[in-house]
Amino acid sequence: MKKQHKQTVLLAGATGYLGSYIAEALSQDQIACKLIARTPSKLKELESKTVKIISAQVTNPNSLKGICEGVTTVISTIGITRQKDGLTYMDVDYQANMNLLNEAKKAGVRKFIYVSAINGTKYRHLKIFEAKEKFVDALKLSGLTYTVIRPNGFFSDMKDFLQMAKRGRVYLFGKGDQKFNPIHGEDLATLCVQSIFQQKSEIVVGGPDILTLKEISEMALDAYQKPIKITHLPDFLRKILIWSLRNFTSSKTYGPIEFFLTLMAEDNIAPRYGSKRLSHFFEVCVQTNTKK
């Protein structure tokens, strides 16, 4: 339902996976917003009376000066899974968000919404989580009203299963009975926009279906119409792999693998939300790849 809101939202990360869905949701709901982009042309089609595109780079504080003027709420999806372009997790997940937070405080922004990840405190020792949680700490002490949104993984993160399934076999550590419920970016975007008008300091959220890794593997193989072939590797190999990566490679290499292998080792179940199903997401991915 479209209606006018007395809000002006600044969205950082608007060209990313989740950010693009949030930008679309803000536009559809006719909420006045500013979208930050390094390459504004990527968002040109969203520009309207309520949507303004701003060229800025969140890792460069000078490019953000005054960016929060007239803004009531900041939403940040800024974060990286893989370190690249010479930027570390601390450069992006922590410092870039701090740059935004500092501008928000100067401009008197009322609320800051930050998208982190599930069980951040528990997994703080992981490189990816370390930077995110350091920013969460700063946000809590900022004096601003805040909401930390903690999704239980995205559907897009499940593409690793599709890559294995395409080759005809999926490999799992252990029995594959670990459960979790990833969420589609579009469903999460809806929740992020709703949180603008809610008074919740933290929202833990997952998708509608609680699935085991074995079930996700079967879905991926079904999407490619492959016979169910799943190889179960001893879990001690997972632990050895994590140890080896930490000791013999850089965080640029082991960061995302450490994250994946650690979270996949135990149940991570969040309150269910949304309507989009992983099985359909897999089918669409396969159809899209087939057409290319």
TrEMBL record:
Superkingdom classification of source: Bacteria
Coiled-coil parts of chain: none
SUPFAM superfamilies: NAD(P)-binding Rossmann-fold domains (SSF51735)
Gene3D superfamilies assigned to the protein according to its UniProt record, in alphabetical order: NAD(P)-binding Rossmann-like Domain (3.40.50.720)
UniProt GO MF annotations: protein-containing complex binding
Database matches in CDD domains: SDR_a5 (cd05243)
Domain NAD(P)-binding, first and last residues per copy: 13-197
Alphabetical list of Pfam families matching this protein: NAD_binding_10
Matching PANTHER family: NADH DEHYDROGENASE [UBIQUINONE] 1 ALPHA SUBCOMPLEX SUBUNIT 9, MITOCHONDRIAL, NADH-UBIQUINONE OXIDOREDUCTASE 39 KDA SUBUNIT-RELATED
Entry protein name: Uncharacterized conserved protein YbjT, contains NAD(P)-binding and DUF2867 domains
Species annotation: Ulvibacter litoralis
